[in-house]
Design brief:
- The chain is an alpha+beta fold.
- It has 2 domains: about 260 residues, 2-Layer Sandwich (BirA Bifunctional Protein, domain 2), CATH 3.30.930.10; about 90 residues, Rossmann fold (3-Layer(aba) Sandwich), CATH 3.40.50.800.
- Helices cover about 25% and strands about 30% of the residues.
- The strands form 6 sheets. Strands 3, 7, 8, 9, 10, 11, 12, 13 and 16 form a 9-stranded mixed beta sheet that branches.
- α1 packs across α8.
- The longest helix is centred in the middle third of the chain and has 21 residues.
- The chain is elongated.
- The structure holds adenosine-5'-triphosphate and magnesium ion.
- The site of magnesium ion (MG) has 3 residues, from β13.
- It catalyses: tRNA(Pro) + L-proline + ATP = L-prolyl-tRNA(Pro) + AMP + diphosphate.
- One of its GO terms (molecular function) is ATP binding.
- One of its GO terms (biological process) is prolyl-tRNA aminoacylation.
- Keywords: Aminoacyl-tRNA synthetase, ATP-binding, Ligase, Nucleotide-binding, Protein biosynthesis.
């Protein structure tokens, strides 16, 4: 993509009403624009990053046998009354009247609609298990939407739901999902802790949150180097106490961002909405259910909170909006021809490249490239006639290569 033909408008100053690092950098670098508190437009660069995150999640969901669906954001009141949640969710759910006075809510989560769909389709034990997920925008009337992509009122969620004959089957699949989340975060270069948190539904069962440690997080967690971790909302220990897992006096406290949360819901929704099946003796049984959330847009914001410096964003390779940022520095015909040639060669090798071919000063181009934060940078300059300069965004070191050796720098 030639930058001269691309829609990127960087801003010199961060908007004064945005205080979070992720919102400031993403707006200045041309990834997002704020429409209202908690609702952002994704610009071309932003869509590419968000799509890469969604794609990594989608691949892992497909790997664990789940199938993708897409449910509506518009939801009727009656199914939410079956579980008593229409009233409970009143503060957080956008609720309004449609034509004919019908009560409608915008989806905060999708247990009710998916159970409603499934109860018309599951009859026998042979119809189970079922694993379905979607990647869809959720709406929540959050009281404080001040942290950019970390807390949206309209935000992206991947929600997976699983349905089982037995509690044991649910428990086994829950562990499979947990491991798939570990893989997703590894691919994203994010270090996460798996944190025990309140189950919500059963008081004795924990749910598990995936938390990234950062001073800018809203959650507080207690953790130990051995991997044990609990959310402050349930913890009964203090900093310096013995860890209940490894017995060392090592409990630490940190702020963190919750990027995923998985729950065993048991038969709560199945009983409330009559999702049942006939077992192999012809006896009616209620289905066991699990739900597994992951926030692609919150993850995008978290990555920016974790990976940045004074000059801008530093994307991990897996979500960098473009694999390479090619900069042309110098405006004589010879240098431009050389950069054009490298651009064509990269494209021929399926390396997605953003080519800054604009007629702008080297200083401005380098500054913008730092702000945008593409992982790998190539520079064709009039100061270096024969060689191409190669630099990683996160490192100072520059190496020089002949054109024929450039492709090898990308693992294609
Ligand atoms: P929080 O406690 O931060 O409000 P939650 O526990 O209500 O979040 P879940 O219902 O567990 O969130 O949602 C699943 C995932 O969706 C979260 O782990 C997070 O990644 C994402 N998420 C939830 N709320 C938001 C939001 N307002 N903006 C962006 N992402 C969100
Ligand atoms: Mg949660």
């Amino acid at each position: 993509m030639r930058q001269s033909e691309y829609f990127i408008k960087t801003l010199k100053e961060a908007p004064t009403d945005e205080t979070s690092i992720n919102a400031q950098l993403l707006i200045r670098a041309g990834y997002i624009d704020k429409l209202l508190a908690g609702a952002y437009t994704y610009l071309p660069l932003g869509v590419r990053v968000l799509d890469k995150i969604k794609q990594i999640v989608r691949e892992e969901m497909n790997n664990i046998g789940a199938h993708e669906i897409l449910m509506p954001a518009l939801q009727p009141k009656n199914i939410w009354e079956e579980t008593d949640r229409w009233q409970q969710m009143k503060d957080i759910m956008f609720q309004f009247k449609g034509r004919g006075g019908i009560d409608i809510g915008l989806g905060t989560t999708h247990e009710e609609p998916i159970v409603d769909m499934l109860r018309k389709r599951v009859n026998s034990y042979r119809d189970l298990p079922v694993y379905l997920y979607q990647i869809q925008d959720k709406f929540r009337n959050e009281p404080r939407a001040k942290s950019g992509l970390l807390r949206g009122r309209e935000f992206s969620m991947k929600d997976l739901y699983s349905f089982h004959q037995t509690e044991q089957d649910l428990k086994d699949y829950y562990e499979v999902v947990k491991q798939s989340y570990v893989k997703i975060f590894q691919k994203l270069d994010m270090e996460v802790l798996i944190v025990e948190a309140s189950g919500g539904v059963f008081s004795k069962e924990y749910s598990h949150e995936f938390q990234v440690l950062t001073p800018n997080g809203e959650d507080t967690i207690y953790y130990c180097q051995c991997g044990w971790a609990q959310n402050k909302e349930i913890v009964k220990l203090k900093v310096g106490d013995d860890c209940p897992n490894c017995n060392q006096a090592s409990i630490q406290e940190s702020k963190a961002i919750e990027v995923g949360n998985i729950f065993k819901l048991g038969q709560k929704y199945a009983k409330a909405m009559n999702l049942s099946y006939l077992d192999d003796h012809g006896k009616k049984q209620y289905v066991y259910m699990g739900c597994y959330g992951f926030g692609p847009s919150r993850v995008m914001g978290s990555i920016v909170e974790l990976f940045n410096d004074a000059n801008g964003i530093i994307w991990p390779a897996a979500v960098s909006p473009w694999s390479a940022h090619l900069l042309l520095l110098g405006n004589d015909q010879e240098t431009r021809a050389k950069a054009d040639k490298l651009y064509a060669e990269l494209q021929a090798n399926n390396i997605d490249v953003l080519y800054d071919d604009r007629d702008e000063s080297p200083g401005l181009k380098l500054k913008e490239a730092d702000l945008i934060g593409i992982t790998k940078r190539l520079i064709v300059s009039d100061k270096n006639k024969d060689l191409i300069e190669y630099k990683l965004r996160q490192e100072e070191e520059i190496s020089k290569h002949a054109i024929k050796d450039i492709i090898k720098l990308f693992d294609v």
